[in-house]
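From the shared-data thread, chain only:
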Amino acid sequence: MLSRREFGGGLAAAAAGRRRRSERPAPPPANEPNLARILRTKKLRVGGLAGEQPYFYKKSTGHWSGFLVAMAGDLASALGVELTIAESNWAEMVGDLHTGKIDLGYGPSPTARRAMFADFSAPLLHDTYAIIARKSFAPRSWAEINVPESLVAVDTGSTREEAARRLAGNAAITGFQTRDEALLAVQSGRIDCFVATVLFALAALKKNPEIGELVVPAPHLRVAICPAIPYDDDRRFRGVVDAWTEDNRGIGQIRNWILAGLAEFGVESSDMPADVSF
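Structure, as tokens:
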């Protein structure tokens, strides 16, 4: 027979065990909606693309900056959660969304194929396709670039590579592992141009004007920059993102974030081509 002390000790141990079990975090519900998960974990996980100035860039300190980081931070604040940046790349970002590694992605532009795996929200802005051209190479149209004699550089796997192959598929297109390698090829005269976007090109040329010149070929072709999120049956997170976008676009705050991000590279609003808008 247990003594009173032994019996009491057993009760205390059982109570302690119940407390430990109750303190353990409950497993996440199966098929937990995106918004419920973000609010439960108190974190908004956003995919980051290193070296994509002025949109994203990772400083030597490990700190992330760029105007899309500023926008993501404001959205996280509106939700009352912490922003975390998970480094990704062009090839893997849609997959990271589809497998639940991140909650939100900026970068890959919406296409029918990508929309099979990621839910694209309303556009934050529309960037314009352009080229960074070597000195003395100044085509006026995409048709002038879209010939076998044109030597076109792209950074492999990026949205810019997809654009180059769609807009100038007849040109001699060379893929480079990094953007810096592609720009160096333009600067050295080995390549005629690098297909970019206006905002990207403005930041790159402010950093190194010797690369070449900004050219916006006709017709002006735009790319939508849309937040991409994982599909779920609830879709409340999609509604939150759309409402946040509409609110901040309506009061001009999205434009302010873009201009502030460009200003970090010395780009002023007067540097923007007169017939280009975002």
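The two ends are 82 Å apart (CA to CA).
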